[in-house]
Design goal:
The complex is a heterodimer of chains A (206) and B (332). Chain A is mostly helical. Chain A is built from 9 helices and no strands. Chain A has one domain: Serine Threonine Protein Phosphatase 5, Tetratricopeptide repeat. In chain B, the strands form 3 sheets. Chain B has a 6-stranded mixed β-sheet with strand order 1-2-5-3-6-7, with helices on both faces. Classes of the chains: A mainly alpha (206), B alpha/beta (332). At the A-B interface, helix 4 and helix 5 of A face strand 5, helix 2 and helix 3 of B.
Chain lengths: 206, 332
């Protein structure tokens, strides 16, 4: 099960993790971008937490609202991308009873939306390189998914992203110099997945 | 880096309010947005909206006014504004004749303006978007993000704004803006980095005896880090890099901008222009219009860029026609 309360916890936990890693995200972005990822993500997730619909029992509604908050508060490239992820994923989840397999189908639609919006493919050193492998393991494991499987896959993906050459965003101007440096967007995506895993773990399903 | 600010979170909002208070008769801030717009919109013309991250002042809000932009949307420093803000600007300036969005080629700007355009279309407003990518320092490749948009954007504002004022249709204004984009090239060099308010570090590191050639307006790396060279040598290098793709012939007419990055004194910009104009003349090129000053800055970055626009009779007419904005005025 993936409940509305779990969806809210996911976002609250993500906001905490992002805020506590604000400096790290900013430093990563400074090395390959313009050094505002930590600030923008912190601002966006803070707004998302403030605007969380506390009364609804529908996880889809929670995620859609989160998407709208992120879209209007993050700015830069991350706003439309994370906004798209949550809005599209949320609109796939209907009603109050949502299984983990439904969540993975929702996130699949979300990540496809991100790829389209950002004109990005795999191995271009972006958030996609972190999120898509994670969604694949979710799809593979279905309702049997465990928190550990999520974390392991996310860690593995994060290591791969580091080695790619950036092809999208401002990082692309660094060309081969971008190899060996972590992508700030992939790192923030990692925190989202880590937060999702902790929510699944707390729920006792995992 | 020392700055005259209050809270880093308030810089954009307080700057916009300060701009309106400097020119209350001409500008207004759209309520609860970061949109600066003309107070009195001319009727029945295509709306022109631009915007992007803040920190490039006077771009873009400083080019709102008669004959240029109808509204500018300011994001956080070096961060694209969000689609909801852009949508508000589109709705505010649309007169039923459509709106042209002018953005610089950065992933965030392109996506946020694109989403705003889609939302506006859903509300029945015709919107077109052009993307400026004039920076020759970046390899032009379809496999990556492509070239950055820099100071050449100001010429796109000017010509699109003038054509819209004359009553051209959305389709015509867009076509003209795209022609400008195809015929404008820029490149810059930086001596000192800028620092985003609230950030602990400057945007990049550079040694005292070096300059970064081909710098981006957010401190992105350029072509190479070179030893500090004289103004004349820099002029030669910039001209050499900017001109080739324009395929100019002897006798061709141009508009030239020698743009300061924020912290470089006008004295230095004029010294640079002194040699640039001679070089263009030696090549048999005519300069119909020259702008020297801070038009597309990067906070307190020290440095300068050269932009050259190839003119046709039509582009010459629009680039030299009257306009009244905070940052650029041409009188009747």
């Amino acid at each position: 099960m993936f409940t509305a309360e779990m969806a809210r916890q996911w976002i609250k936990e993500s906001a905490k993790k992002i805020e506590s890693h604000k400096e790290q995200l900013t430093d990563l972005d400074q090395a390959l971008g313009d050094g505002d990822h930590g600030l923008n993500m912190t601002r966006g997730f803070k707004a998302a937490v403030e605007q969380l619909p506390e009364e609804t029992d529908e996880p889809g509604k929670v995620l859609k609202t989160v998407g709208t908050s992120l879209l209007s508060k993050i700015g830069g490239a991350s706003g439309p991308l994370y906004g798209t992820l949550f809005m599209k994923a949320g609109s796939q989840l209907e009603g109050t009873t949502v299984q983990l397999s439904d969540l993975s189908s929702g996130l699949r639609v979300g990540v496809e939306g991100m790829k389209k919006r950002g004109k990005a493919e795999r191995e271009e050193k972006t958030m996609i390189d972190l999120l898509e492998p994670v969604i694949e393991i979710m799809e593979e494991k279905g309702n049997e998914l465990t928190a550990d499987q999520l974390i392991d896959k996310a860690k593995e993906a994060l290591e791969h992203v580091k080695e790619y050459e950036a092809k999208k965003g401002r990082a692309a101007y660094y060309k081969e110099k971008s190899k060996g440096k972590q992508d700030a967007g992939a790192q923030s995506s990692y925190y989202l997945i880590e937060s999702l895993a902790s929510v699944l773990e707390m729920d006792g399903e995992a | 880096m020392k700055k005259i600010i209050n809270q880093p979170d308030d810089v954009v909002s307080q700057m916009l309010d300060g701009m309106v208070k400097a020119h209350p008769e001409s500008y207004q801030r759209l309520e609860s947005t970061t949109v600066l717009m003309k107070k009195n919109l001319s009727e029945n013309k295509v709306g022109i909206v631009s915007g992007g991250g803040s920190g490039h002042e006077p771009a873009h809000a400083g080019f709102v006014g008669e004959g240029m932009l109808d509204a500018a949307v300011s994001g956080e420093v070096f961060t694209s504004p969000t689609p909801d803000q852009v949508l508000e600007a589109i709705k505010a300036v649309d007169q039923g004749t459509g709106v042209l969005l002018i953005t610089k080629n950065y992933t965030g700007d392109v996506m946020n303006f694109e989403m705003a355009a889609e939302m506006a279309e859903d509300e029945g407003i015709s919107v077109e978007q052009v993307i400026v990518n004039d920076d020759v320092a970046v390899e032009d490749s379809t496999h990556t993000t492509g070239r950055r948009g820099v100071a050449g954007t100001i010429f796109v504002h000017k010509i699109a704004g003038a054509a819209a004022k004359e009553g051209k249709t959305l389709k015509e204004v867009k076509a003209l803006a795209e022609e400008v984009i195809h015929n404008v090239r820029s490149m810059g060099a930086a001596l000192q980095p800028a620092q985003v308010p609230g950030s602990g570090n400057p945007g990049f590191d550079i040694n005292v005896n070096e300059m970064e050639l081909g710098i981006g307006i957010h401190g992105e790396p350029g072509m190479e880090t070179i030893e500090l060279i004289s103004a004349d040598k820099l002029a030669e290098r910039l001209v050499e890099e900017v001109l080739p793709e324009l395929e100019l012939k002897e006798g061709d007419e141009t508009a030239v901008m020698v743009n300061g990055m924020g912290a470089t004194p006008l004295m230095e910009l004029y010294i640079l222009n002194n040699r640039i104009q001679d070089l263009l003349k030696e090549k048999g090129l005519k300069t119909e219009l020259t702008l020297v000053g801070n038009y597309m800055t990067a906070l307190e970055m020290a440095g300068a860029s050269l932009t050259v626009l190839k003119l046709t009779n039509e582009r010459k007419k629009y680039v030299t026609s009257p306009c009244q904005t905070i940052a650029w005025t041409i009188n009747d």
